[in-house]
Amino acid sequence: MSLRRTAVTGIASLLGSRVLRRLAEIRPPDSLVAIDVAAPPPALGVRHHAVDFTEPASDQRLLELLREEEVETVVHAAFFTSPRRDSTYAHELESIGTLNLLAAAAAAGVPRVILRSFTTVYGARGDNPNFLTEEHRLQPSPALSWVRDKLEAEQHAAAFARRYPGMSVTVLRFAPLVGPGVHTFYTRIFDHRVVPLLMGYDPLVQLLHPDDAVAAFVAAIDQAPGGAYNVVPSRPIPILTAYHLAAKIPVFVPHPLAYAGADLLWAAGLGAAPGAFVDYVRYLFVADGEKARQRLGFIPRHSSRDSLTAYLRYRHPHAARPAAEAAS
Amino acid sequence: MSESAKVVPLTKGRRRRRPEVRRAETREAGHDASEGLLVALARVLQAGGGGVNWARLAQVWSAFYFAWHSEEVDEFGYDPKFAQTILPFFEFLYTMWWRVETSGVEHVPDRGPALIVANHSGVLPWDGIMINLAVRHEHPARRECRMLALDMFALLPFLAPLLAQSGAVRANPENGERLLRKGEVVGVFPEGVKGVGKAFKQRYRLARFGRGGFVRLALRTGAPIVPCAVVGAEEIHPKIASVDWLGRPLGLPYLPITPTFPLLGPLGVIPLPAKWSIDFADPIPMDTYGPEGSEDPILVNRLSEQVRSIVQGMVDSRLARRRSVWFG
Q1: Would you call A326 an interface residue with chain B, using a CB distance cutoff of 8 Å?
Q2: Options 3.40.50.720, 3.30.750.24, 3.30.565.10, 3.20.20.70; which CATH number does A5-177+208-233+286-301 get?
Q3: Cβ–Cβ below 8 Å for B58 and A249
Q4: Is 0.90 topped by the overall pTM?
Q5: Ramachandran category for residue A68: left, alpha or beta (phi over 0 → left; psi -120 to 50 → alpha)
Q6: Which residues between 59 and 78 in chain B have a beta carbon less than 8 angstroms from any beta carbon of chain A?
Q7: For each successive 10 residues of chain A (328 residues), what is the average pLDDT?
């Protein structure tokens, strides 16, 4: 029985590394291949191929590799979870890198591709419904290259799925990860004592526990049903409630000032995200997890509050009595 | 129950509460955070001046927030604890200020979905809050009614979070359908902005019922429509003129001029104490047409017009019986 191998990219990212580790637990290590510039932990016993997706000839290299390893499933998780200042490199890796990988997979006749994506690709907009379903149009702010590159990766994937009917492409749109082991610009907000907040706005946000994310990812790799799936926690949380659970001192900023201020801080190298990101703390981008529940059988075990509480416990294991624990 | 649940609520004895409602909410909220506030304050006092630091202040601030907010909200952001906190104010308006007289509330079914369709008036969405209270307090099954709020309110800074926390949901077809499919009672104002912002001389003349979106919603879900007429709300903020060019930069379709606003400044926001009545008519079954009826524009229009004329008829008959705006 050949052609049963699963290749995982982006194994240095939190989600990629956790998925690879989980797969190594439930499958023989020989059936796994890691494709990344970084090597996986040797203890896993997983074969590693160092490929830089941003190199022009990487598609040729990937094609040979996928053929030689007889890969059946490609799991693509090589994406940045925080905005980066060198947006050119991020674009090369995320948009062009995905294109290279898809081209190689199509040429090698790989039947199943799983793409890691983000609920941020819907865009946070005033006219969003409370629950975004997978069919909802994707229109993030064009000013945010960090999200635009993910959107382009999804568009490449959709185009390949149309052009190659024999290739099933499954896209997983994960809500922002918050929980033990997560270090993104999103969780760093919870590490400061005083945090800026938008005056007059309190949107619901979804914070996904990494354990739930890994469970959904592995379920999708097993089934590879094709199409897009939102992977979200069981309940959203108002952003103000999240800050108060973390016992932050909020400083309320009027929104016109917030866009300009965030842009200024970003340009000065101090901010965590460019100004256009303010949309994501101003408007809703809550996604509906019903399709994943029905088709993947994925039922999240953590609510947004649980994810945040777990993160706070992980960051402050010796805290006297974090507000978040009062209820448990 | 944890030890934190034993604490006596700060509000004890101040007013009557319906015990069955309170039990449900305590369960939902998980614990009584007013203990958290007292303990946090005591810690600061105990520590004296030297022991006050950012961490302790943040704890007091957080405990203060959770004294009147839940840690978990529902998927649309409804916060039972917050709703309970502001309930006495709305009850005062209902029983003392507007002396609301309700009839026919038993026409709302005891269980299963229903769509309450009412006329909209009064510049601010007070009528929605009062219909919600009428169903919650006067209906034999004490049903919750989720009001669909117009975008102009549901997206307005400061008002938007308050509406979401007190149970209102932004009016769009996806949200309405989701609630009805869960079997909830949903309230809707098809007149929209044309209704709530109509000039005083247009009072009680119902505007066009949108494009029949509420009928399509009811047809798709099979939820019966309960026509509802509100009389009295037209007189609480008599809008004698409006300044559109001033409203637009604030995100409002109009800025109302009433006899008291902006003349009396913030005091002008206080609604006048007109005598209200809220009448419910016999439910109109919608499951006889089947969901495919929602694709039939002629049927949708006919049903929409039928509901509109029932509501207009109820309004007219109330007005004919009314001898005084203030005393009914």
Answers
A1: yes
A2: 3.40.50.720
A3: yes
A4: no
A5: alpha
A6: 59, 61-63, 65-66, 69, 71-77
A7: 79 94 92 93 91 91 94 95 90 95 95 96 92 95 93 96 95 97 90 88 96 96 94 95 90 92 90 90 95 96 96 82 46
